[in-house]
Amino acid sequence: MKKLSILGSTGSIGVSTLEIVAAHRDRFQVVALTAGNNLELLKEQIEAFSPRLVAVMTEELAETLRRMLPDPKPEILAGVPGLIAAATTSETEMVVAAIVGAAGLVPTAAAIKAGKDVALANKETLVTAGHLIMGMVAEKGVKLYPVDSEHSAVFQSIEGHRNEDIKKIILTASGGPFLSWPAERLADVTIADALNHPNWSMGKKITIDSATMMNKGLEVIEARWLFDVPAARIDVNIHPQSIIHSMVEYIDGCVIAQLGTPDMKAPIAYALSYPGRVATGVAPLDLTRFSGLTFFRPDLAKFRCLKLAYDALDAGESMPAVLNAANEVAVEAFLAGRIRFVDIPAAIERTMSLHQPHTLGTIEEVLFVDRWARDKTRELLHISD
Ligand SMILES: NC(=O)C1=CN([C@@H]2O[C@H](COP(=O)(O)OP(=O)(O)OC[C@H]3O[C@@H](n4cnc5c(N)ncnc54)[C@H](OP(=O)(O)O)[C@@H]3O)[C@@H](O)[C@H]2O)C=CC1
Ligand SMILES: CC(=O)[C@@H](O)[C@H](O)COP(=O)(O)O
Ligand SMILES: [Mn+2]
Predict the structure, then answer these.
(1) Residue 276 is part of which domain span?
(2) Distance from the alpha carbon of residue 251 to the mean position of ligand 1, in angstroms
(3) Which of 48, 114, 115, 153 makes an SS bond possible with 245, Cβ 3.0 to 4.6 Å?
(4) Which residues form the DXP reductoisomerase C-terminal domain (predicted)?
(5) ipTM
(6) Ligand closest to the CA atom of residue 210
């Protein structure tokens, strides 16, 4: 029985994770759950999975939740200390890191420091602090299992191979809802247009990232750290069908790929049950239904966010954390109707141009740079917190 803490249980990844747990109660047990402010869903999850500990965003929400639940109730904590308690509680063996954004960094780092294995969905953890996190993983000897579908595909495609035999990692990208739109039309994109992902049902922030292709940029940075391969050897191929989830090319010319119906339950289940596999209920893949699987190179002039992510990796040090924070602020502003879709890359680029990259030696230093970039982006966009 593997004991789990699920950080971000009320989100898209959190809910899919609990579907896997519900289907395999003989294999997985929930010790802790954390949510932001969706108390109704968290209450249902508490009733269904009986965690010993839960955490929510504020003390006020914690008090409301205490009133909503009959006795006996779990321990209910609040804020970052609550997230850390959920990530480090002694019974837990594996932490599912499924909070969205840089808010996931501190609890994920705490889990690793406490010696927990991590199923990592929160890509922003590696984007902002990849070298520190991978250093902690090595020092603590814990396992970091990718949940992101592309990274799970790469992970499955490198099983049994040597890192020095990898020629290239090829991350696939759907291209998002604007793949066939002319670049001039991007100025008119509505929030509903941008949330209309062709293949995946996900939280709002990552869905906008997919539309700008910043998601793929964040994934290039994530892959750089997870697989210790430099950015020059990480390619992106647009593959609109999202059937091949990514590929690895080896020095002998062989390419190994992982395929499947696009459903996050598959990579989540693999991270939870590695090295075994469990049934997921994911629709079987019938390749005869497809008239063709297509691939082409991304247009970096149209999808500037992807180019900015490569630039950030190239600049190195603190720049990816700046890219990430500026992106989070800009996406939030777009979703609030305060800026246009095309203002997202423009804001990130301006913030990056004002930053002199420097070494980040601690998580606290990452948080400091993250705050600087958020403030700067808000200032540039003329928006308050
Ligand atoms: N969705 C997907 O298919 C995929 C997601 N990912 C990555 O996984 C992560 C989660 O994505 P997704 O599930 O889509 O996101 P969602 O927005 O659906 O869920 C986010 C979760 O985090 C919680 N949360 C949000 N902000 C905070 C905060 N400041 N403190 C504590 N908890 C918070 C939310 O709580 P509440 O809702 O209660 O407020 C919710 O439980 C992201 O990093 C994303 O990039 C990667 C690959 C695929
Ligand atoms: C499901 C998943 O892993 C997402 O990150 C997905 O990759 C988004 O699709 P895009 O390829 O459009 O970014
Ligand atoms: Mn992905």
Answers:
(1) 149-175+213-298
(2) 37
(3) 153
(4) 259-375
(5) 0.99
(6) 2
